[in-house]
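note to self: dont lose this again. the chain is below, predicted strucutre after it. 361 aa total, dont forget to put it in the shared folder this time
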Amino acid sequence: MSLARSREPADRERLLAGIVDLCDASQVEGCPAAPEVRILLDSIFMTLVVEAERDIRARLAERLADAAWAPAALINILALDEIEIARPIIARSPVLQDHDLIRLLVQATLEHQIEIARRPELSPAVVEAILAKDESAVLTALASNPTAQVSPDGLRRLVDKARDVVALRSPLARHPSLSSDLAEQLYLWVGRALRDALVVRFQLDPDKMAQAIEASLRAVHQGSTAIDTPSLEQDEDREEMEAALVEKLDAAGQLRPGYLLRVLRERRLPLFLFALARLGQFDIRQVRRAVDSNRPELLALACSAVGIDRSVFPTILDHVRQLNGGRPGGGAEAARKASGAFGPFAPDIAAMAFRQAVSAA
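---
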């Protein structure tokens, strides 16, 4: 009672911990709470958690992540909390049902969606909801989850998506449900190391696959659309080399904002993306999402965050659009409005705004 009367954060945390201990003990003893007691517990938890500080909510989430008795309303609130608090709940809570996870996919941030895709034993309904959202980073997390119940059609859709999304290729090549037919399709889009692994795993005919690659490249050079094959610029080996080059330049102190325009003039879009991500300390997936959107202001915020001048941005946007199929879209009017991202604020504010905007996009 004295803890309940206190408004001190430490006392509130002790009160929460004491209630959790009581509920855990009742569960172990096989004495589930009566309905009226559960209603009271729900009310107590909700009242205390709403007022609790961040660190207390984080420790409570870790305590309740495995608790089958935990109030559903409380678990759903914690699952919508900031990602460091929500992560153990999303990953492990037995209280979260399919409809809860699907609602989270609609309401929560990109980071929350990625954690959902990583959750063990995802049901077909949740998998279908992830596939329907068609978010590259979330699809990559799903492809990396060997326990998710992905249907053969769902796996085919992931392999089709891997034509454009490089990050999907490696987890799909190792996916336990990948079929020989899909392996042959994936073979055309991956780097040399993954090709060798696919040949060994599925006993693919190297000569046959070499002929398929040659036919694909010939079709590309001839301008044919009969075989839809990605650009050589998207080859996995090339992107790994680009990322390594950016890392070395940064380590040597040679990676500067002016480098971005230089590589665009050399028509090296992947190198631009990795360099922008490194300079701004962004996730490469966030940068890719920005340049593939219809909102050039996202790219403008990223450029502002790394010190690009407002006067240079139109040239950068023009180069990116030329190399990226007209994306980011929005036309001339959107490009004009994007200049507002270069406001009178510090680079760290622009970086924060970029991360928030690209997660909400």
